[in-house]
Amino acid sequence: MKRLMRYLSDYKKESVLAPLFKLLEAFFELLVPLVMASIIDKGIGDLVNADKGHIVRMGLCLLTLAVVGLVSSITAQFFAAKAAVGFSTKLRQALFDHIQSLNFTNIDKAGASTMITRMTSDINQVQSGVNMVLRLFLRSPIIVFGAMIMAFTIDVKSALIFVVAIPLLAGVVFGIMMWTMPLYKKVQAGLDRVLGLTRENLTGVRVIRAFHREEEEEGRFRDYTGALARSQIFVGKISAVMNPVTYVIVNGAIIALIYTGAIQVNIGNLTQGQVVAIINYMSQILVELVKLANLIVTITKALACADRVAGVFEIQNEAWQRTDGAAGSVQEAAGENAGKGAAPALGQVPYLQFDHVSLTYAGAGAPTLHDIDFAVEKGQTVGVIGGTGSGKTSLVNLIPGFYPATEGTIRLEGRDIRQMAEEELRSLVGVVPQKAVLFKGTIRSNLQWGKADATEEEMWQAIDRAQAREVVEGRQEGLDAQIAQNGKNLSGGQRQRLTIARALVRRPEVLILDDSASALDYATDAKLRTALRQLDGDVTTFIVSQRASSILHADKIIVMDDGAVAGMGTHGELLRSCEVYQEIYYSQYPEERPKAQKTAAEISGNPAAEGGR
User: Fold this and answer.
1) To the nearest 5 percent, what fractions of the chain are helix, strand and coil?
2) 551 contact partners, CB below 8 Å, separation of at least 6
3) Which end of the chain is more exposed for a tag (fewer CB within 10 A), N or C?
4) Mean pLDDT of 278-290
5) Phi/psi at 541 (nearest 5 deg)?
């Protein structure tokens, strides 16, 4: 929580004024029992000799105290609300910015549902905690201890009851707080699980209905929410004990006060008004302790949530840039890597080089990629192919630095990409991810993700190259046509073409198409590949595909198998020398398989047997 308090720095004035006005209200409230005692003792006295003037004066005094207290309370509430809302706004923005700065490894580790819960529910709880603390955390103790002190000024013997009651009450309140704090953390963790399941079901609703799994998913959701409800009920029962226990202690103290006060009045040590004042002070303590008990529950929740929010800030990326901030020249890179696959001399530097690169995901038992070593010249088209799980996507995700290489070096124009600022590196790379993602807005706003100041001419040029003109012109609003969240109002092929256009409008030096044409028909795919070969500015293109047809004409094809490079070369070279590539290619073009390599199933014309192979 201490770390989060810096987001209150812009609200120092409000954070000071709110409790000060609450203290002012508390001081006026502490005067009320004394005024009432004066009315009883001096104003009323006995009914025959009642001093009506004194009663009127004291009544006006009570009215003044009420008005000043109300104004002080409203002012304190205003400043507390302003500080709490401003604090939560800055905290939420800072948390969002921090999450955006995390690399894929840390985001995968934390989980999307947890991030969402901490940005919404947790921060709301922290906001409520800050608001309540500014309003009541000083007021309630001041009333409690102030009432005790005022009682001592009236009668020491009667006030000793306060000395016994207040520590008992404090023990109950803080004991329950220490008990419930870890339980509230478990409740929030349960909320994470419910949110994760909800998110999964909403995004996968079509699949659930296609396989008629509604009842099973309803059962899972019922189990998760049931566990959350049980946790909330259990911690709620513990918190609920606080109010009745405090009432019992305070009411017991009031009984003791009435008994002691009656004896003191009987022997003439106290007046009736003073006894009433002492009982009023005990009643004030009761009310404030009930408020304090509720405040403690809120603070307990807020502290538990604040720890969870602070936990996200503690997630830090591994060092990306060098500590000295140097950009790293070609000569530096060569010197640093001398003797272990050093960078070539200036003039022989390839545009992009993987120098014995390996990748192990966080928590994985074995490397996903190992000893990847190849070089690409500027303007070349590189195809990446391989079986499912062979590491194709992991390979291209290393180029923009989505995941840091655990071994080896990746160089762009001779510079280690770890020595480049992320913004510089990402500005050179255009990525079309495996899953086409569009954002709610218009076609224009989605294309501007690639280039914020793109002109309409640049947009239409990118749209034409992505074979998406019919998608845009097919809508009456054209570029201003609305896109639903995740592009739900578009087909899979339309989403893919618009995501390709979004990457092309940036005019990147490196274009990565990660199986991004899987939903396109063969004719559109062929037109797209033709357009990509005609890109201006020597764009280096990586095409990840399951289709051999998509990469046949690539300048270089990298064949991946179980995280390693199984072969590298042109289509013709690989067809002669790489068994993995032969297997992939002939499975898609069985008619081109040499007769000597045909299986018995193919010769007999049994398609079922061929499919089983």
Assistant:
1) 65, 10, 25
2) 383, 384, 385, 543, 545, 557, 571
3) C
4) 78
5) -115, 130
| Domains, the chain | 3-313 (1.20.1560.10), 347-577 (3.40.50.300)
Q: How far apart are CA 191 and CA 209, in angstroms?
A: 25
* Cα dihedral 340, 341, 347, 353 sign: negative
State whether residue 535 is helix, strand or coil: coil
DSSP category for residue 244: H
What the block records as the tokens of 444 is 């224009």
Neighbours of 77 (CB within 10 A): 16
Query: What is the average pLDDT across 575-582?
Result: 90
Which is it for strands 564-569 and 540-544: parallel, antiparallel or unpaired? Answer: unpaired
SS3 510: strand
Both tokens of residue 434? 């495996």
Neighbours of 173 (CB within 10 A): 18
pLDDT bucket at 418, cuts 50 / 70 / 90: confident
**In 102-155, where does DSSP find H-type helix?**
104-110, 112-117, 123-132, 139-154
The amino acid that residue 115 corresponds to is M
For residue 374, what pLDDT is reported? 93
As a whole number, mean pLDDT of residues 305-317 equals 84
pLDDT digits over 98-130, tens only?
Answer: 888 887 777 877 777 778 888 888 899 899 889
Residues facing 432 on adjacent strands: 513
Matching residue, tokens 């009883």: 40
In the block, tokens 């297997």 appear at: 583
Quote the radius of gyration of the chain (alpha carbons, Å): 36
Structure tokens at 112: 């999307």
The answer to whether 542 and 384 have CB atoms below 8 angstroms apart is yes
What CA–CA distance (Å, rounded) separates 425 from 320?
A: 12
User: pTM above 0.85?
Assistant: no
| CB 331, CB 211: distance < 8 Å | no
The answer for residues whose C-beta is within 8 angstroms of residue 582's C-beta and 6 or more apart is 574, 575, 597
Question: DSSP state, 212?
Answer: T
Residue with tokens 């020597």: 538
